[in-house]
Amino acid sequence: MKHLLCLSAKLKYKCKLLFAAAGIFLSIPAWSQLPAAQQVASQMKVGWNLGNTLDAICGENAWGNPNTSQALINAVKAAGFNTVRIPCAWDCHTSNGVIDATWIARVKTVVDYCISNNMYVIINIHWDGGWLENNCTPGAQNAVNAKQQNYWTQIANYFKNYNEHLLFASANEPAVSDATGMSVLLSYHQTFINAVRATGGNNSSRSLIIQGPSTNIDNTYNLMNTMPTDQISNRLMMEVHYYAPWQFCGLTADASWGTMFYYWGNGFHSTTQTDRNSTWGEESEVERALGLMKTKFVDNGIPVIIGEFGAIKRTNPADLSLHLASREYFNKYVTSSAKSKGMIPVYWDNGAADFGLFNRSTAAVNDQGVINAIMQGAGGSPSGYITLANRATGLLMDGIGRTSNGDNCSQWSNSGSYNQQWALETTGSYVKLKNRATGLYLDGMGRTSNGSIAGQWTSSSSNNQQWTMENSGGFVKFRNRATGLYLDGLGQTGNGADLAQWNTSSSFNQQWTSTAANARTAAQSASEAFVSKSSIDKQPVQFTVYPNPSSSIFNLVINNNEKITLVEILDMTGRVIESIKPAAIKNRLELGASLKPNTYIIKVTGSTWTKSFKVIKQ
User: Fold this and answer.
1) b vs e for 397-412, b when ≥16 Cβ sit within 10 Å of the residue's Cβ?
2) What DSSP state is assigned to residue 274?
3) % of the chain exceeding 70 in pLDDT
4) Average pLDDT score over residue span 568-591
């Protein structure tokens, strides 16, 4: 009996130890190995910079931008961006080397605005007074490495619980132009990697971004011939920036070395203000430069972030509309080229009129044209439309082609129809949703009863057409301004089910996923007819290109070849590869037999119009 009692006591003691150990284990966050950088990069479609905000010296409002809001990030997400780069300053927010708790908490709040929208987020140490960026020298190396170690240890520890949607970037634009500076910069990146990895947890496998010298593409290609070492493979990304030609992208006054360019790209040069046409740095330069990054890094398994790109909006060109069109074309072309080479383009937005896409105070869209251009280049929405899928049912909000005021709004499984695509318009702090097919707006119709149907109506200033977008764990909820009710799918899963409204609840029926409407596939685009409505070309011209992609020839079928003055095939630099004059133009042409595998443009010209198709030779 004595032995049994002793055994019982020992078992009780061991059980207490086991329970205590279990309690400790359960109190520790569950770490996991995060995905490889290549996998993370494949999900980062196109990005946007929250510039001149948390990187301002010293304070979020110091450079004129207001505090960032959830509404702003919602608008960025609704526009089609799924990645946000948050430039950050830290040095002036420290005391004796310790980062101010209020400041890092504020950075976390803005990060969480993005994470709650299921977006990818990059935080860095930006210019930050230049303590790193202006000091890539042997004399400053020890002091800079000490700061780099200190700051990244604190930042990494603070954010270590976040999953792969959060990425860290070592610096911004470190000023390096020779091998000595490159060696020093590599030590700064090595310190960054070591500091982050030493904090453990998810930081042991988090994707980290390092910057090329001056984030200049040619410097990076020529000087960055080794990468820092990392304890885990396939977790590093490279960052460069693209602002070429600077005379078009950023120069604000004529300089001794060059004058401002207002017009960029094939088909966008001015015939009257020729001295402001770009004389270098156009499509072929984009292809050359980004091609270097693809060859050196992407093709070797290292993802590349174009951390900043964009072109300044000018107010004084003689042909302002042509300038704005060429600026949109620049943003579209750079985005498209980057995406085609496996890179992630991140547009620079400083919140001001020259670059800003959004009103930072109201979250209203300021430049839908550039947003559309970027999304077209990224293969997203062809004209800034979104789809809204119900979380509970998976059905999409659908106008059902109804064009009469008061028609019910409905739901339908994904069809790709314009009836399921909506333009998000802002009015103050509210949004309006306009159906692409019908032109009608989503309208609460003044109905205040749970279960009442949401309708559609032509544009008005009524509060019934105005909705607030509220974040709900990565989804959005729409609340009608007039009725206070929320858009609700009511759990109806049948195609054609009416869309309703209900008091607020935590139901998935009130939660929606906002996604940029899918661009038409190349085959769909090629099968659609183009109809000229010119006052001169009164006879409609219809033509089709097929197959697309093609491994042999492209067939161009024209219903009225007498209206065509020229058919050309151009490469992506704008160089003419093939040209067919009117005498040889028939109702059916076979094109591109000798083309090498690549992407090309088939350009068809009439007397007063031009239509172009992008085609792929496999």
Assistant:
1) bbbbebeeeebbbbbb
2) G
3) 85
4) 78
Annotated catalytic residue, options 308, 328, 425, 568: 308
Catalytic choice (60, 164, 173, 239): 173
Q: How does residue 605 score in pLDDT terms, banded at 50, 70 and 90?
A: confident
What b/e readout covers 252-283, taking b as 16+ CB neighbours within 10 angstroms? eeeeeeeebbbbbbbebbbeeeeebbbeebbb
CATH 2.60.40.3080 region(s) of the chain? 522-617
User: Among positive and negative, which fits the CA dihedral 335, 341, 342, 344?
Assistant: negative
pTM equals 0.63
- CA dist 406 and 454 (Å) reads 9
Q: Residues 123, 237, 375, CA angle at the centre, nearest 5°? A: 75
Which of 17-31, 103-117, 396-410 has the largest mean confidence? 103-117
In sequence order, the β-bridge partners of residue 530 are none
∠484-486-492 over CA atoms, to 5°? 150
CATH code for the structural domain at 37-251+281-377: 3.20.20.80
Question: Among residues 522, 497, 518, 501, which one has the least CA distance to residue 510?
Answer: 501
* Average pLDDT value for residue range 350-376: 92
CA–CA separation, 161 vs 306, rounded Å?
26
Tell which wins on pLDDT, 145 or 571.
145
| Active site (annotated) includes residue 173 | yes
Residues 6+ apart with CB under 8 A from 493: 393, 394, 395
**Span between the terminal Cα atoms of the chain, in Å:** 85
Where in the chain is CATH 3.20.20.80? Answer: 37-251+281-377
What long-range pairs does 406-410 form, CB within 8 A, spacing at least 24? 406/445, 406/455, 406/456, 406/457, 407/440, 407/455, 407/456, 408/453, 408/454, 408/455, 408/456, 408/498, 408/499, 409/442, 409/453, 409/454, 409/455, 409/456, 409/498, 409/499, 410/496, 410/497, 410/498, 410/499
- Rounded to 10°, the helix 320-340/368-377 angle is 30
| Cα 340 from Cα 312, distance rounded (Å) | 24
Top CATH class, 385-516: mainly beta
Q: How far is CA 518 from CA 43, 120, 122, in A?
A: 16, 20, 25
- pLDDT higher for 416 or 408? 408
Rounded CA-CA distance 495/332 in Å is 36
The one-letter amino acid at 603? K
3-state SS string for 547-604: CCCECCCEEEEECCHHHEEEEEEEECCCCEEEEECHHHCCCEEEECCCCCCEEEEEEE
Q: Tell me whether residue 308 is one of the annotated catalytic residues.
A: yes
405 token code pair: 């005021």
CATH architecture assignment, domain 522-617: Sandwich (2.60)
Burial class (CB in 10 A: 0-12, 13-18, 19+), 538: exposed
What is the pairing mode between strands 598-606 and 564-571? antiparallel
